[in-house]
Amino acid sequence: MKLSKLMLLFLVLAVSMALVAGCSGTKQPAPAAAQPVELNIAAAASLKDAMGEIQKLYTAKKPEVTLVYNFASSGALQKQIEQGAPADLFISAAAKQMDELEGKNLIKKETRNNLVENSLVIIVPKDSQLNLSKYEDLTQTAVKKVGIGETETVPAGQYAQEVLKKLALWDTIKAKAVMAKDVRTVLTYVETGNVDAGIVYGTDAAVSEKVKVVATAPAGSHQPIVYPVAVLTGAKQPQAADEFLAFLNGSEAKAVFEKYGFTVSK
């Protein structure tokens, strides 16, 4: 009997040890924490407000990703990219700058698409007494200064020049023009009363309570205002850039763009 009890005890111990070993063998290792990623985004100045909201949405989903924005005129950003400034993704306010980068193989052509579209408007200070309702009214003697983006580097300035030339107004208006480094600077000039009127995107006017829109560029007076986006060939974080680009083209980001007055490209 004693021998049987000892054998039973050994058997119980053996089974217990086997169960413990089996449990420890199937235990899964804890998933590795996502590695932090810094993603550099070069974006046209007119996207600042929308991209700020998109940043909050994206980092809530991907807390390991830090979005580092560089907002400026598209022409200035193009030059920075050509000179090797860090950038993983570029969003331009015109096709021209993206076309030139593509011609130099600085963007991944297969990632390029048109993200959003915009309109071109004349704004004046909220309390302005000027009687303006169309672009031709900028020739009035009461209009002394007109804020316009630099026509060499700022797409909004290039579109403005295109409209004014189309309407045979450029030669008159350029004498009144106060050139700005980007479209948001034009907005600031109008808000502060440093100019009597300014030509900006519709989305810029929409984010300010200090200005009012008095005219929109006539249909056909300028090329469509499209914002192409692409991942750069020299992206340090190509996978993260691809993922963020997919988010920008998704429904959540599109809703934000529409909230700020952009038209989502088809």
Please tell me about this protein's structure:
This protein has 266 residues and is an alpha/beta fold. The chain folds into two domains: 37-117 and 226-264, D-Maltodextrin-Binding Protein, domain 2; 120-216, Periplasmic binding protein-like II (D-Maltodextrin-Binding Protein, domain 2, 3-Layer(aba) Sandwich). It is 40% helix and 22% strand. The chain is built from ten helices and eleven strands. Strands 2-1-3-10-4-11 form a six-stranded mixed sheet. Helix 3 runs parallel beside helix 4. The mean pLDDT is 92. Residues 1-21 form the signal peptide. GO terms for molecular function: metal ion binding; molybdate ion binding; tungstate binding. Belongs to the bacterial solute-binding protein ModA family. Keywords: Metal-binding, Molybdenum, Signal.
In short:
The chain is of the alpha/beta class and 266 residues long. It has helices spanning 2-26, 48-61, 74-82, 95-103, 155-166, 170-173, 183-191, 202-206, 238-248, 251-259, and strands at 37-44, 65-72, 89-91, 113-118, 120-125, 146-149, 177-180, 197-201, 211-216, 225-231, 263-264.
